[in-house]
């Protein structure tokens, strides 16, 4: 298997710089990440960040990272953070990635599942776990927030779920549901709202609050006057 199928899952409308990588956990499971750009450039999710965060969100510890470009964005940080073995290859293993391309389809009650997912959150700094489930036309992807030593390289639950979906080639989203057990309301942060406004612009966002109530919103309404400049180079 070449990198091309994974590269094609990248969302790179501004740079056309497609990139992907694969993280292998200490238990031998593999997780793919692809580059997901945002019109607000600093919110772009590098492939290495996506793959490592997805691995951590599944309760696994990254051990190796496979890439075609060892100088790719954030790879140095993640390699040092987890003492990863960086393996340069032009032939990622198909069999280890097979399960990644199929979204979950099991029937379940959303709120109980969101509550269970909170236990997977990696929050050594904030102790503020968040869970999210992103529904697509043929299944769903789960996410929790992941914090690491460099606060700026942590990533929210909503974006972990989005990263999983893109790595699996699923971009036809239907709705996003979010839950936190702490705080007055469950609400995507400003950064997530910017990402959501671009990737899920007219979608239902269901927020399950810590007091047992819930509210539903149109994603477009979560961030009035979001950055949509047509002046950017494309």
Automatic annotation (TrEMBL):
<keyword id="KW-0378">Hydrolase</keyword>
<dbReference type="InterPro" id="IPR013171">
    <property type="entry name" value="Cyd/dCyd_deaminase_Zn-bd"/>
</dbReference>
<keyword id="KW-0479">Metal-binding</keyword>
<dbReference type="InterPro" id="IPR016192">
    <property type="entry name" value="APOBEC/CMP_deaminase_Zn-bd"/>
</dbReference>
<dbReference type="InterPro" id="IPR002125">
    <property type="entry name" value="CMP_dCMP_dom"/>
</dbReference>
<comment type="similarity">
    <text>Belongs to the cytidine and deoxycytidylate deaminase family.</text>
</comment>
<dbReference type="GO" id="GO:0072527">
    <property type="term" value="P:pyrimidine-containing compound metabolic process"/>
</dbReference>
<keyword id="KW-0862">Zinc</keyword>
<dbReference type="InterPro" id="IPR050202">
    <property type="entry name" value="Cyt/Deoxycyt_deaminase"/>
</dbReference>
<comment type="subunit">
    <text>Homodimer.</text>
</comment>
<feature type="domain" description="CMP/dCMP-type deaminase">
    <location>
        <begin position="105"/>
        <end position="230"/>
    </location>
</feature>
<dbReference type="GO" id="GO:0004126">
    <property type="term" value="F:cytidine deaminase activity"/>
</dbReference>
<dbReference type="Pfam" id="PF08211">
    <property type="entry name" value="dCMP_cyt_deam_2"/>
</dbReference>
<dbReference type="InterPro" id="IPR016193">
    <property type="entry name" value="Cytidine_deaminase-like"/>
</dbReference>
<dbReference type="GO" id="GO:0042802">
    <property type="term" value="F:identical protein binding"/>
</dbReference>
<dbReference type="GO" id="GO:0055086">
    <property type="term" value="P:nucleobase-containing small molecule metabolic process"/>
</dbReference>
<dbReference type="Pfam" id="PF00383">
    <property type="entry name" value="dCMP_cyt_deam_1"/>
</dbReference>
<dbReference type="GO" id="GO:0008270">
    <property type="term" value="F:zinc ion binding"/>
</dbReference>
<protein>
    <submittedName>
        <fullName>Cytidine deaminase</fullName>
        <ecNumber>3.5.4.5</ecNumber>
    </submittedName>
</protein>
<dbReference type="GO" id="GO:0005829">
    <property type="term" value="C:cytosol"/>
</dbReference>
């Amino acid at each position: 298997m070449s990198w091309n199928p994974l590269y094609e899952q990248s969302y790179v409308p501004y740079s056309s710089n497609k990139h992907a990588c694969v993280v292998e956990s200490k238990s031998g499971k593999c997780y793919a990440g692809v580059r997901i750009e945002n019109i607000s450039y600093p919110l772009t999710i590098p492939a290495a960040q996506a793959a490592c965060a997805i691995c951590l969100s599944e309760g696994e510890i990254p051990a190796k990272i496979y890439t075609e470009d060892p100088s790719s964005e954030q790879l140095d940080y993640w390699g040092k953070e987890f003492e990863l073995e960086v393996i340069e290859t032009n032939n990622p293993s198909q069999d280890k990635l097979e399960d990644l391309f199929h979204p979950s389809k099991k029937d379940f009650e959303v709120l109980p599942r969101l509550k269970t997912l909170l236990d997977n959150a990696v929050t050594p700094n904030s102790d503020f776990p968040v869970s999210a489930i992103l529904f697509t036309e043929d299944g769903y992807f789960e996410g929790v927030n992941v914090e690491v030593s460099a606060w700026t390289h942590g990533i929210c639950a909503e974006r972990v779920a989005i990263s999983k979906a893109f790595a699996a080639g699923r971009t036809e989203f239907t709705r996003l549901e979010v839950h936190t057990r702490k705080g007055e309301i469950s609400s995507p942060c400003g950064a997530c709202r910017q990402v959501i406004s671009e990737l899920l612009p007219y979608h239902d966002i269901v927020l399950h609050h810590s007091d047992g109530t819930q509210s539903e919103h149109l994603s477009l309404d979560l961030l009035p006057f979001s950055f949509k400049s047509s002046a950017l180079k494309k």
